[in-house]
Specification:
Layout (H helix, E strand, L loop, with lengths): L2 E5 L2 E4 L4 E8 L7 E7 L6 E7 L5 E2 L8 E6 L4 E6 L8 E9 L2 E4 L3 E6 L1
Parallel strand pairs: 2-11
Antiparallel strand pairs: 1-3, 3-8, 4-5, 4-9, 5-6, 7-8, 9-10, 9-11
């Protein structure tokens, strides 16, 4: 079975940091891109980062660029999202998705709450 297990969310104060993890299983990790999305109550889902597992290249929207860093440990089939200088507007449920070869998978989310 395909699984994407996200973890690491929690309650922090504005300006603090969190690191999210997403452990993948059940598919050929190296052939996929992994993305983090987030969704806040009443708002549309937003992509916050993406990594091409094959070459390690990453992309970020302007809203998180310079504050969030995505990385991968291919041996562990795990991706990380290091989130620094968190803001209240970063409060959301964060999901990791895998896309590749015409397939897309999504795991359960992890809640990040940033208090101001």
């Amino acid at each position: 079975d395909v699984q994407l297990q996200a973890s690491g969310g929690g309650l922090v104060q504005a300006g603090e940091s969190l690191r999210l993890s997403c452990v993948a299983s059940g598919f050929n990790f190296d052939d996929y891109s992994i993305a983090w999305f987030r969704q806040a109550p009443g708002k549309e889902r937003e992509g916050v980062s993406c990594i091409n597992i094959n070459d390690g290249s990453t992309t970020y929207p302007d809203s998180v660029k310079g504050r969030f860093t995505m990385s991968s440990d291919n041996a562990k089939k795990t991706v990380y999202l290091q989130m620094n200088s968190l803001k209240s507007e970063d409060t959301a449920v964060y999901y990791c998705n895998a896309v590749g070869g015409g397939f897309a998978y999504e795991g359960q989310g992890t809640l990040v709450t940033v208090s101001s």
